[in-house]
Amino acid sequence: MNTIIPPTIDIHLSGSDLRGAMEQDVRSGLTAAPKRLPPVYFYDDRGSRLFDEITRLPEYYPTRSERSILDAHAKDIARRSDADTLVELGAGTCDKSRVLLDAMLSTGRLERFVPLDVSDTTLWEAATALSEEYPGLAVSAVVGDFHRHLDLLPTGGRRLFAFLGGTIGNLDPGQRRTFLIELGGVMAADDCLLLGTDLVKDRSRLVRAYDDRAGVTAEFNRNVLHVLNRELGANFDPERFGHVARWNEEDQRIEMWLRSAGDQHIRVADLDLELHFGSGEEMLTEISTKFSPDALAAELGECGFEVEWMWPSDGDEFLMTLARPVA
């Protein structure tokens, strides 16, 4: 492959779509009991920088563990999937994509890359760079939401769908089931799913990963309040909310909360919404479910997938699973 193919981009999300979704999410979340906010709103430019810092903290193992699996087994993944097209859901900057693209290139099968993400700017920059780095690769970027736009992804070829970073753990059981069933519905019989999941382990190690000594995760958690202040005219004082990370044994997940330091009256001007936070009241901002291999295989099976292979990281901290839709 030696000819640079200009990338294409299909946009299924506009700025007004994203704004409308934020308004709906924030109104419904802040009027729920307990109050809650979706973790997607952590990630403005500042939040993305903070998360990048988190991934390099000694306490935060998931990113390193997942990358170690990709480095060690990407060629095996490429061989077993026998795919010519990589589809990455929530691709972001596409940094991890390169490991899989290199492995697929080594099999002689690589033809196309389809990254999907909600940020058109980030996605276009990544798509342009990858087109130049991989001459002959057709990059078909899609600006969309994996909850809503799976049926609009390009078809054809033999596709490997990658859903990495343990992101599926941020979905509650109902959301996971809906997502997996909808994904299976758009996959062909010879397509594969590559799924990255964090594993259940020592509880104190799990909590430390989400409550680091340097306080970076705490600042990342509070960043959602900065976002609401800027985007929706809210008047949160982020310093009056403490970061809480705890393990939920029943649901097998880490939960991140923001705890109010004292009684507070909050106004979200753009929503004409008045709120009261009692002293010690907590607001849920993120869940991160952890899995066992058997439980994950069972959940995938219930949603129409059959596990073909699993690759654990050293120390069984993280897991990469290759699955196919059941015909």
Task: Describe the protein's architecture and organization.
The protein has 327 residues and is α/β, with parallel strands linked by helices. The chain has 2 domains: 8-12 and 59-201 and 290-325, 3-Layer(aba) Sandwich (Rossmann fold); 33-57 and 203-289, no CATH class. 36% of the residues lie in helices and 25% in strands. The chain has 9 helices and 13 strands. Strands 1-4-3-2-5-6-13-12 form an 8-stranded mixed beta sheet, with helices on both faces. Strands 7-8-11 form a 3-stranded antiparallel beta sheet, with helices on one face. Strand 5 (159-163), helix 6 (173-186) and strand 6 (192-198) form a beta-alpha-beta unit. Helix 2 runs antiparallel to helix 8. The longest helix is centred in the N-terminal third of the chain and has 20 residues, at 62-81. The protein is globular and about 60 Å long. It starts with 7 loop residues before the first strand and ends with a strand.
Brief digest:
This protein has 327 residues and is α/β, with parallel strands linked by helices. The chain is built from nine helices and 13 strands.
> How many β-strands, per DSSP?
13
What is the C-alpha radius of gyration, as a whole number of Å? 20 Å
- Per DSSP, the total helix count is 9
Q: Tell the overall outline.
A: globular
Question: What proportion of the residues form beta strands (DSSP E)?
Answer: 25-35%
Average pLDDT level: 95
Walk across the major sheet and give the strand order: 1-4-3-2-5-6-13-12
Q: Which structural class fits the helix and strand makeup?
A: alpha/beta
The CATH first-level class of the largest domain comes to Alpha Beta
In the predicted model, the low-confidence regions spanning at least 5 consecutive residues are none
Give helix and strand order, one letter per element, not per position: EHHHEHEHEEHEHHEEEEEHEE
CATH topology of the largest domain: Rossmann fold
Our measurement of the CA-to-CA distance between the termini, rounded to an integer number of angstroms, reads: 34 Å
CATH architecture of the largest domain: 3-Layer(aba) Sandwich
Biggest β-sheet strands, sense, barrel: 8 strands, mixed
* Number of domains as seen in the coordinates: 2
Helical residue percent?
25-40%
